[in-house]
Design a protein that fits this description.
Length: 354
């Protein structure tokens, strides 16, 4: 008999199970895909927080302040713990003056966590709460379910590009609600990125490389020619807007003299070249370049409501994208929330101090 059942072997589930192991417990970890890692494995691996709490609150004003405070206060210690498991670090900063954190190699991070967990039951899906054993829901939200995205987020969801790992179709949300839980704020919000529009071909290894992250250097319009002014450094506002526009499309027009602007280690021109090479519609003239993009839904920001103990309801816990209300109104690191609340969920589920 396991001490705790963990549904999902992505970031939050593996962290929770590794913490359970550290405490001497035996977790049963079920993963519906034939591989561990979930969206974490596809991610850039940057686990971060805002440098100061006031900026976090200002950028994510509708999130639960108690959860945000925990994330802010615990992340640095939790990053050191990940480091101690041997997760390979690529960079010890985020390259963004507003944030601090660590970039891990996502494949190595997955491997280190799986090793710390010991055993994961692959291709095994949790369909309902197991009853007497504590349950940790870590199924990654519902970014891979067009039905739930259409119902809760946007009528244009059928046109969106689904950028998340395919297993995250809202199982945790359903199981948590069936057990008597409730939903958090912001069920209609997602983290998304503009991606090259069809007929572009985008495989899993291209999800990070092909993101078109230069709206702030572009004129952004929808199919009707209406303009949108970018307001945030993360461009979360553009992506949320785009997802609600006709066919979830936006056209990014970049003036010739802005093509050399840098987006992390690449130029805007290089990002556009990559989109064009993948097959996206690109129009070039002497004055500017226009790229057709589609909203790429990456993570849902709303989910089950949890308290500071990651508790949904007696004996049922949620973490990662299954737990909503952390980044509501803006954007914060999903990997960081999965790390902090995954550890808390495991401790509380096993009767330890959070
Ligand atoms: C391309 C890309 C880049 C990203 N870059 C970053 C970044 O740099 N920084 C950052 O903070 N975030 C990033 N993210 C977001 C980050 O990956 C997620 O926020 C994070 O993985 C959420 O963790 P999770 O454990 O909730 O979900 P996941 O890591 O997706 O894990 C959920 C797992 O649960 C499994 N599952 C689902 N249903 C069941 C069930 N019924 N039974 C058993 N298993 C089930 C799924 O198959 C999946 O393996 C990125 C995401 C993508 C796709």
């Amino acid at each position: 008999m396991p001490d705790v059942v963990v549904a999902g072997a992505g970031m939050a589930g593996l962290v929770a199970a590794a913490e359970a192991r550290r405490l001497g417990a035996t977790p049963l970890v079920l993963e519906k895909l034939p591989r561990a890692g979930g969206s974490m494995l596809l991610s850039s691996g940057v686990i971060w927080r805002h440098r100061d709490f006031e900026t976090f609150r200002a950028e994510c004003p509708d999130g639960d302040e108690r959860l945000q405070r925990l994330l802010f206060e615990r992340l640095d210690d939790d990053l050191r713990w990940l480091d101690s498991l041997g997760a390979p670090v690529v960079q010890r900063d985020t390259g963004n003056p507003l944030t601090t954190g660590t970039r891990f190699d996502s494949g190595g991070l997955t491997e280190a966590l799986v090793e710390a967990v010991g055993a994961v039951q692959l291709a095994e899906r949790l369909g309902e709460a197991p009853g007497s054993v504590p349950l940790i829901l870590a199924t990654g939200g519902f970014a891979a379910s067009r039905d739930l995205l259409r119902a809760h987020v946007s009528a244009e969801a059928d046109h969106a590009f689904l950028r998340a790992a395919p297993g995250s179709i809202g199982d945790g949300l359903r199981i948590g609600l069936e057990a008597g839980g409730s939903t958090s704020s912001g069920l209609d919000q997602v983290y998304a990125r503009a991606m090259p529009a069809p007929p572009a071909r985008i495989g899993e290894p291209d999800l990070v490389r092909l993101a078109q992250l230069y709206a702030r250097h572009a004129e952004v319009t929808n199919e009707r020619g209406e303009r949108y002014e970018t307001r945030t450094w993360s461009e979360i506002d553009v992506a949320q807007w785009q997802l609600r526009q006709p066919r979830a499309r936006a056209w990014f027009t970049v003036a010739a003299d802005r093509l050399g602007e840098r987006v992390r280690e690449r130029s805007v021109a290089e990002l556009i070249d990559a989109a064009e090479a993948a097959g996206a519609p690109v129009r070039r003239s002497e004055e500017d370049v226009t790229v057709e993009t589609v909203a790429g839904v990456t993570t849902t920001l709303g989910g089950l409501a949890i308290d500071e103990h990651a508790c949904v309801i007696d004996n049922v816990y949620a973490c990662g994208a299954d737990a909503g209300g952390v980044a509501t109104g803006g954007y914060a690191s999903g990997l960081a929330a999965a790390l902090v609340f995954g550890r808390i969920a495991a401790r509380v589920a096993l009767g330890e101090r959070p």
